[in-house]
Amino acid sequence: MLENKKILFVSVSFFNYEKIIKNKLEQRGAIVDLYDERPSNSIFIKGLLRIKRDAYALQIKKYYSNILEEVKNKKYDYFLLIKGEVIPIYFIKMVKELNPGIVLIYYNFDSFYNNPNALDFLPLFDHNFTFDTEDAEKYNLNFRPLFYSDDYEKIRLEKQENKTNYDIAFIGTAHSDRYLISEGVSKEAKKIGLKHFAYYYSQGRSVFLFKKLFDKSFKKFDYKKLSFNSLSHSQIIDIYKSCNYILDINHPSQKGLTMRTFEALGAGKKLITTNTEIAKYKIFESGNVLLIDRNTVKLEPDFFKSSRVDFDDQTLYAMSIDGWIDNIFFIKAQMPKWF
What we know:
Blueprint: E1 6-11, H1 17-27, E2 31-36, H2 43-51, H3 57-71, E3 78-82, H4 89-98, E4 103-108, E5 127-130, H5 133-138, E6 142-143, H6 150-158, E7 168-173, H7 178-191, E8 196-201, H8 205-214, E9 226-227, H9 233-241, E10 245-248, H10 259-266, E11 270-273, E12 289-291, H11 301-305, H12 313-319, H13 321-328
Parallel strand pairs: 1-2, 1-3, 3-4, 4-5, 5-6, 7-8, 7-10, 8-9, 10-11, 11-12
């Protein structure tokens, strides 16, 4: 149903996932024009857009005026927006005006508490989705969790379990209490004879030093364990291939399940997570998920002794990028029940 459909796709840049979505849409026959939602992804501009967006208003207007100039003579079937952190309302209205009959789809992988700008334009969209169960209920939106991409499915199908370099792996941006929890898991893992690997990423030295001044959890951070280079997609895939358990540490203020959740389970790995929301989901009942207390980190040895349980095809499809696309484009809106 996406064959030859033209899609205008605007998204924040989030670890190349927007490109993975674009590529999958194109594989399915769509013609996609992708634009970064932010005029710039520099550390300074990202911070400015979150704290004082008005100070960058002229640059935002110029950026979106240039996009309109590029797309004004094209006719789109769909407009897909992910997050909507800075996009001006006039741009959305103009896209609708230029494309009579266009279907507007919005998806948010953040909470509206962190991204209140999006609340202003929700009425303009035909279909609104969020990965947060509370936001879905509060704002009467469609609920749709995140997904795993095809590369993680390949790991599961290739069955890499016996080619491990370590047992537990954590990959994540350094924020909140992540370092303390991950190091706590490392200590617990050693007690039961397991190897733990962690990759802590920071956007820059100045960002890290600023956080260290104002965030008490960063005062205990071992600077030598920090990296200022983000891992490529292929490097992350290699790490997944080299372990059997993935550690997921959600931000304390975030309730939706992370991308890491579905990547781990889609790759055929068992998941260790701090996100208490997962206990509401049917996937938690599989025995493939260990929920740990972020305040008192403890590992259950029996979890590492039991074998992983295969998910049924319907559940795997629902968690996949194809399931995500089919869901938000209403190609196959009925998914297996998440709860």
